[in-house]
Amino acid sequence: MEVSLHRLKLLVELQRRGTVTSAAAALNYTVSAVSQQLALLEREVGSTLFERRGRRIVLTEAGILLASHARAILAAVEDAGHAMESARAGVGTTLTAGVWASVASALLPAGLRVLAREHPTISVRTRELAPEDTTGAVRDGSLDLAFVLDYSSYPMAHVPELVRRPIAGELLHAAVPPGMVEADSVALVDLAAAPWILSGPRSHFGRAVRIACREAGFEPDNRHEAGEQSTALALVAAGLGVTLVSDLGLESWTAGGLIDVLPLTDGVSRTVSIAYRKRDSRRGPLRAFVDAFETGARELGLDPPEQAAAQPLT
Questions:
Q1: pLDDT score recorded for residue 88
Q2: What pLDDT does 309 receive?
Q3: Cα-atom radius of gyration of the chain, to the nearest Å?
Q4: CB under 8 Å to 307, separation ≥6 — which residues?
Q5: What's the confidence (pLDDT) of residue 308?
């Protein structure tokens, strides 16, 4: 029996996600293309692998058995690739990294400069994702690694298959229209009556800020929903409300002079980490990437949290 590795990967994705639509979206295929490939897989193995239950497709016993072997086969192929990567030593390697807006505009250039200087044979491709989507893409193998966030008010859920290496600590600051607050710092509760500008409540940032406000005793009146910090700051500059902004968000804000940025007495913070699969911990290029971005973060004045400084990569 000769089976396509590509189709085995589709099978594993289908088992993990439960629908052809979700599997197709995860792998950037059309639904019809995935359906065709899965039908070919059934022909290759000569067994019924799927059955319909309402709108869902579930694996038969044969499908579950093949998916189990498929995971082992795909892992072995990936391990072989990593072994060859190590054997090639000085030959170029490409890593695919998941990024989000403020990382892409501020930390990414700094880290890539360090990586190019110290490891010129390693190249990097990036994909911009929402922060809450990055860990799933790393776990599924769509990305080699990704930048992830943990807020002091709302840490991300633990993913057993992944390791996180903290590389930078950021404070969140209040961003308000010029002259609105006549003080050198401000508490969240002092902004309770102001109109707010936040990303949606399902986003990691939006949820973290709402939780911090509730802990301060109020529900923010969100007048304008903005997914990117740069957009939110532009609305603040227009006098339309207040928001919170991270150190990286300020790095990418170039308008200047149109907003007041004040320290928060509440001490809301977040940690930027790089997530990768545990089984990839010994990959030399991945280690080099993490070290380069930790250096890049320091060059931006973003030291990792003290408790993370001594953490081993593995």
A1: 58
A2: 39
A3: 23
A4: none
A5: 43
- Low-confidence stretches of the chain (pLDDT < 70) are 1-2, 55, 77-92, 254-257, 305-314
Q: Are residues 115 and 123 in contact, defined by beta-carbon separation less than 8 angstroms?
A: no
Paired tokens of 235: 């609305």
| Alpha helices (H) along the chain | 5-17, 20-27, 31-45, 61-88, 101-102, 108-118, 134-139, 204-215, 229-237, 247-251, 284-299, 306-309
Write the CA distances from 52 to 5, 31, 45, 172, 234, integer angstroms: 24, 15, 19, 49, 49
Could you give the CA distance from residue 137 to residue 144 in angstroms, rounded to a whole number?
9
What gap in Å lies between CA 32 and CA 248, rounded to an integer? Answer: 41
Mapping DSSP to helix (H, G, I), strand (E, B) and coil, where does residue 153 land? coil
Output DSSP code: residue 141. Answer: T
- Burial, 51: exposed, middle or buried (Cβ in 10 Å; 0-12, 13-18, 19+)? exposed
Mean of the per-residue pLDDT values for the chain? 85
* CA 200 to chain CA centroid, nearest Å: 17
Query: What are all long-range contacts of 66-75, with beta carbons under 8 Å and residues at least 24 apart?
Result: 66/8, 66/11, 67/11, 67/12, 67/15, 70/8, 70/9, 70/11, 70/12, 71/12, 73/5, 73/8, 74/5, 74/8, 74/9, 74/12, 74/141, 75/279
| First CA to last CA distance, the chain | 38
List, as one string, the DSSP characters of 82-95: HHHHHHHTTS-EEE
- How far is Cα 246 from Cα 253, in angstroms, rounded to an integer? 11
Give Cβ neighbours of residue 208 (< 8 Å, ≥ 6 apart).
151, 153, 154, 268, 270
**pTM of structure:** 0.71
Question: What's the confidence (pLDDT) of residue 297?
Answer: 92
Strand partners, 243: 175
Other residues' Cβ atoms within 10 Å of the Cβ of residue 27: 17
Number of other residues whose CB lies within 10 A of the CB of residue 209:
25
Q: Does an H or E element contain 262, and which?
A: strand 260-263
